[in-house]
Specification:
alpha+beta; two-stranded antiparallel sheet; DNA Primase, Chain A; 104 residues; 5-stranded antiparallel β-sheet; 4 helices
Length: 104
Amino acid sequence: MPGVNFDQIRAAVRIEDVLSLLGFEPSRRSGMQWYGRCPLPECGSARGESFSVNATLGRYCCHRCHSQGNALELWTAATQLPLHQAAVELCHRLGHAVPWVHRW
């Protein structure tokens, strides 16, 4: 199985796109900083604003389950798939070409 260029995916995928796929609706916005309920299944944050997103930096952090990272890491955590499989699925869901890495 060929590898995936994760750096290209991280550069091409916006965190807003991943949040949209996850159905995240911020309960409060302060500029490009958004707050709301954590969309990760293991969090269990049924209420409150434990989840924050900085759309400018493309980073997220949940102060309840302590998950944090970029758009690809958010998708990986939300789907609970291995990174390679999550990256391929995310590209397909967003209509991006998968940046395959073929080794000789």
